[in-house]
Design goal:
Cofactor: pyridoxal 5'-phosphate
Distance between the termini: 43 Å
GO molecular function: transaminase activity
Largest sheet: 7 strands, mixed
Order of helices and strands: EEEHHHEHEHHEHEHEEEHHHEEEHEEEH
Family: Belongs to the class-III pyridoxal-phosphate-dependent aminotransferase family.
Strand content: 15-25%
Strand order of the largest sheet: 4-10-9-8-7-5-6
Helix content: 25-40%
CATH topology of the largest domain: Aspartate Aminotransferase, domain 2
CATH superfamily of the largest domain: Type I PLP-dependent aspartate aminotransferase-like (Major domain)
Structural class: alpha/beta
Bound molecules: pyridoxal-5'-phosphate
CATH architecture of the largest domain: 3-Layer(aba) Sandwich
InterPro entries: Aminotrans_3, Aminotrans_3_PPA_site, PyrdxlP-dep_Trfase, PyrdxlP-dep_Trfase_major, PyrdxlP-dep_Trfase_small
Number of strands: 16
Number of helices: 13
Pfam families: Aminotran_3
Radius of gyration: 22 Å
CATH class of the largest domain: Alpha Beta
Amino acid sequence: MENLDSFSTDYLFYQSRKQMPFIERAQGVYIWDHTGKKYLDGSSGAVNCNIGHGNNRVANRLAEQARKAVFAYRTQFENEPAHRYAAELVTYLAPHLQRVFFVSSGSEAVESAIKLCRQYFFNRGQKSRHQFISRTPSYHGSTLGALALTSYSPLEIPFRPMMKAYPKIPAPYCYRCQYHKKTKCNLECAWALERAIVEQGPESIAGFIAEPIGGASTGAVVPPRDYFGVIEHICKKYGIFLILDEVMTGFGRTGKLFAYEHWDVDADIVVMSKGITAGYYPLGAIAARTEYVDEMMDNGGFSHGHTLAGNPMGCAVGLEVLNVITENRLSENAAAMGKLLKAGLERLKKRFQFIGQVRGQGLLTAIELVQERKTREPFPAEQNIHFLLTDEAYDEGLIIYPRRPINGLKGDHVLVAPPLISTRKEIKELLALLERALERTEAKLPA
Ligand code: PLP
């Protein structure tokens, strides 16, 4: 291994809070750093490396496409990987979602969804429909348009005022219900959408966007069973787009190829990225209702695009990753391993009083950390317990994904979301590492 001690890291900046070790190599569910230390990737990177690391089949397809043609500009050439991939992808989507638009990231995909809705209404002479309603907390990306739909204060505050501060309704977060309901709730958080539409004026609303299962925002919160039924009913009643942001939940993560399959809900647009290429190449996409796109195409097309949109590399990798997921039944594996993982997390909850809740679906799980389980009293935000646990896990050789309390909602959580290729043995190993990290955290908890 090259000696990296004298290597300057001054020239590159991120959001990161501290200097991390260099990644040396990665294989399956494991990562090695430049000192030779091994980690179990319990967060699949940023919950995107769904098929695990070092997949030769995808690496070979990437190299093969790079040698053949790395780029085709859409006004100059059609490219086969993009058409092939779109045609294959729609076979796994709802029958009314048969039109695909490619971009390079989740944020760009959310931007594309926003612009598609706005152009659709513009073409129909309904220019006033420019607003979007989203939820708080939520995460839909970091570009300014996507950030305006996001409700994740640490990432938003420096950029206020937003391009437009769109209205937000409470996310379904039953453990800390924003309506303080204890038992029967009547889905107030879903009906809040109708109240927001009426308050804003229905003629001003273009769409509503939601993560089907909370990702970085609420942390693997699964909505009540009938939540999306109510949401869909309201969107239909007011003629607005229902946009499901499957950037984190898509491509098998929750035990189905797309999380919306857990309920009987018809989205008008599904937003995808992350697992779409599992980290092997930047790619994002939206799939939209066929008749809406066709109407727009008859009206001169979509006034939107990026240089790398639908490039052959990303699409070749996307198709190969999709084949890896479906041929190896990774969604089914995520469902089975998710059950094992959740059962193990519940066992850890019995042992560690500072685990308040275990939640999630498939291999998108989380634990919420509390000072007092009975009252759900959170740790004071400044104690950063989510970082303490994540750091202890890191020292043990386990990577998990922390989240601080946001948007006035109290409570730290960490996401536990290993690659969908995880075996029983690897899930058990993850749980053993997490148990040691929890022991070390418990010993350091403020008295
Ligand atoms: N939407 C959701 C639900 C996400 O989880 C993310 C990223 O975490 C995004 C959008 C933004 O994706 P990207 O970071 O690729 O821009």
